[in-house]
């Protein structure tokens, strides 16, 4: 991560080997715990801001806009701090370039859809169902990889996608049976999953425009989002809703809003930190396990009672996601271990 300073991967590997096992285990535990606390706290806090009976604030676009504004200001502040104290931290220099802004704009539109539909899904569904409602990301990854990138997927990976789809539909069925299903929230969850997949694909295409820097991309994405959210904020009548809001002058309200923005910024950092100290595969497993813990916490916190089939749908989604991660990791390892045609040719010639 740029925030921690650039380092050589081989040097990191050697350094990790030199560290005692207990120290490495403690570091990994702390990093994974930080990721879990940040991610789960962000979901519960956003649910409070978007659908709290005590707040009664129906301005999801404004909440999302404010979080993007906080992220933009944090990125700029860290850039200035890094310039003033070059030895203390390493953060890229951020200057607004209109040419780069235009290059990033298509991705920013997808990014806006992703964060908006995520928040709208969370507004209309419970935290317990939130994971199932947004569970089709893996399925869209496979579908869009084939349609846009012409990449095929193995039978076993497709089988895991079938398990995820089955879990999703069972979850929808059980939410309907319990009388808590929101078709609006479910639709927003599906759209959020689609945008998450598109965001991953377009990020790879746009990264060269920001010199491969994730922090620069974060800055430009959020700047574009702030500008594009303003007309939406006005057109949907949220300005008038905000004017009539009784707690507009409350320090507690603005404190919670700012905290939500801080969590939104922090999740990108701790995600990269977890990948750095573990691996992409371990990160995905950690994310799946975190989703399970988040579901259990939501059921306990909101004092909900769920059926056996409802829990089965969650286990299908989480199990299918974990299995897909494992299958893809196994396939990548298999490809890396297979000798190239040139090496086979050399070995047959006795070279």
From TrEMBL:
Putative transporter. This is Sugar phosphate transporter domain-containing protein. It comes from Felis catus (Cat). It is a multi-pass membrane protein. Keywords: Membrane, Transmembrane, Transmembrane helix. Belongs to the TPT transporter family. SLC35E subfamily. It is found in: Membrane. The chain crosses the membrane at residues 21-44, 64-88, 100-117, 129-148, 155-172, 184-202, 214-233, 253-273. Residues 27-321 form the Sugar phosphate transporter domain.
């Amino acid at each position: 991560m740029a925030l921690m300073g650039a380092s050589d991967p081989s040097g990191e590997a050697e350094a990790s080997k030199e560290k005692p096992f207990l120290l490495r285990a403690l570091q990994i535990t702390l990093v994974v715990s930080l990721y879990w606390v940040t991610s789960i706290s962000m979901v519960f806090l956003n649910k409070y801001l978007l659908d709290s009976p005590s707040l009664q604030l129906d301005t999801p676009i404004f909440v999302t806009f404010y979080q993007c504004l906080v992220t933009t200001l944090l990125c700029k502040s860290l850039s200035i701090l890094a310039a003033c104290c070059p030895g203390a931290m390493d953060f890229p220099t951020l200057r607004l370039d209109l040419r780069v802004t235009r290059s990033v704009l298509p991705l920013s539109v997808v990014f806006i859809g992703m964060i908006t539909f995520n928040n709208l899904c969370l507004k209309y569904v419970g935290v317990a169902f939130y994971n199932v409602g947004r569970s089709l990301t893996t399925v869209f990854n496979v579908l869009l990889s084939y349609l846009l990138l012409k990449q095929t997927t193995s039978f076993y990976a497709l089988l895991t996608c079938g398990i995820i789809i089955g879990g999703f539909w069972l979850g929808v069925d059980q939410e309907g049976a319990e009388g808590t299903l929101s078709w609006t929230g479910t639709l927003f969850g599906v759209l959020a999953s689609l945008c998450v997949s598109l965001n991953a694909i377009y990020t790879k295409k746009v990264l060269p425009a920001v010199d491969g820097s994730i922090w620069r991309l974060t800055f430009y994405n959020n700047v574009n989002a702030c500008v594009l959210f303003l007309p939406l904020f006005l057109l949907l009548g949220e300005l008038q809703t905000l004017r009539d809001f009784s707690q507009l002058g409350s320090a507690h309200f603005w404190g919670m809003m700012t905290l939500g923005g801080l969590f939104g910024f922090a999740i990108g950092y701790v995600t990269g930190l977890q990948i750095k100290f573990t691996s992409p595969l371990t990160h995905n497993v950690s994310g799946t396990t975190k989703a399970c813990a988040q579901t259990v916490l939501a059921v306990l916190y909101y004092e909900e009672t769920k059926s056996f089939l409802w829990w089965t749908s969650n286990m299908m989604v989480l199990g299918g996601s974990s299995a897909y991660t494992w299958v893809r990791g196994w396939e990548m390892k298999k490809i890396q271990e297979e000798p190239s045609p040139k090496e086979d040719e050399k070995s047959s010639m006795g070279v």
